[in-house]
Design a protein that fits this description.
Blueprint (H helix, E strand, L loop, with lengths): L2 H19 L9 E7 L3 E5 L8 E4 L5 E7 L4 E5 L11 E8 L1 E4 L7 E2 L16 E4 L22 H6 L9 E4 L5 H10 L7 E7 L3 H13 L6 E6 L5 H20 L3 E7 L1 H14 L13 H9 L13 E9 L8 H9 L2 E5 L1 H5 L12 E2 L8 H7 L2 H15 L7 H17 L9 H12 L11 H15 L1 H8 L6 H15 L16
Parallel strand pairs: 8-12, 10-14, 10-15, 11-12, 11-13, 13-14
Antiparallel strand pairs: 1-2, 1-6, 2-5, 3-4, 3-6, 4-5, 7-9, 15-16
Length: 516
Amino acid sequence: MTRAEDIAADAFAPLDAALDRVAPGIDAAETARILSVGNGVAQVAGFTDLHADELVRFPNGVVGIASSLRPERIGVIVLGSTDQLRPGDRLRRTGRVVDVPVGEALLGRVVDALGRPLDGGDPVEGEGRQPVERPAPPIMHRDPVEVPLQTGIKAVDAAIPIGRGQRELIIGDRQTGKTAIGLDAILNQTDSGVVSIYCAVGQRASAVARVIQALREGGALGRSVVVVAGGDDAPGLQFMAPYAATTMAEHFMAQGRDVLIVYDDLTRHARAYRQLSLLLRRPPGREAYPGDIFYIHSRLLERATHLREEFGGGSLTALPIIETQAQNISAFIPTNLISITDGQIYLTPGLFEKGHLPAIDIGTSVSRVGGKAQLPAFRSVAGSLRLMYAQFEEVESFARFGTQLDAETRRKLTRGRRVRAVLTQREHDHFAVPEQIAVLLAATEGLFDHLAPEEVAEAEATLRGALRERLPDLAADIEAGEPLTDAARAELLAALRAALGLDDGDESGGARDGDA
């Protein structure tokens, strides 16, 4: 080779290398075309082989789920905006189902139903990805629900206890404080080690922003995950959000950790699925809901459980929220959820309007786990609370007719009104278990009978301080699960009387504010 040829070869060497890098390759993919596109749903044709619930990819990065498979056309739920999709556009298979990132990297983040960040941060780099649709744990992998999940709300922890691994429905009309109860349950887990997930479905952006701000101010955002599918998002994202949030929670449960998840709310989730089903031309049933509306919620909530030790020992506690219309708890979706869950916390607008907050109707609310999810000391104090409160409400309803009352009936009315004042609680004001036991014991034993109901809150604050200062060892024993012995009960009552400045017989003093 001559010198001129050597120079030419050296000159063209970078060009040859560049051509090798950009050499055309074959990208084999099965594609189809869009026939029509609507609000959240696209009809496509052209696939020769497609699996149910398989993920497909549209132009501009939009993805969808193959839902209704028919020979002539396929209904696809679009997980994003359909504004830029047009009939004739091509889409392709991905060969996988919808999955989301899982792991510690999600804590403190606000993400959408596909795990994409909504807080302006970097993309979530999780420990892996898991499908949003997963089977519930088998029965033989589950343990009984016996460990309490404290919410810090006296009315709930005393009368409607929640255990780790339970599914407790929060139900009531709009603007009665349903979200506040779920939010308080999350905020109360500061020292419990429980990982919390708040899943907002169909909520206004302002409402979600308030929840995130409350979590941040309460120091709970760093141990929480917020999954948002707002009211302006595609119905497909609203439908997938609870399943995605549950998958994120199950990763922590598999590690042996306790998780609390709040679904706010499943009424909007059901409406989003109804919208998708009608657009997919599925036969409507009662109230235009499709026939599998029960199944979409049962397969979601059955994933909440308490695992046996050999399978990790973790738990997933679900607090689904649902909205009623005019207190009609016998409507289609409420009755479905009531039959699936392990009890319900029922809030009424009547109590809300009277200022009895939280507006929990103790008589209608129930926990099917019951006292098994309470500490022994709590169970000994609050065991008869529901019966006593029900008797008080019955007597109070008769007393409105102006009937002449005997001394025993007047005493029940006085005691019941003080107990109701004790169960009233400000939002984000959480009571530790020993403090709840102290104030409930004081109310049921009549230590507040000489006070007007509006003075009970100040007396509560006095008792909470006295418990921490005078009986720290007893408070620690109660939190450790020790039973409240007769001697400890007498010691606690003596300390409470001393804090209120009462002698042994003072609590039976005269009634106040028209109780007689």
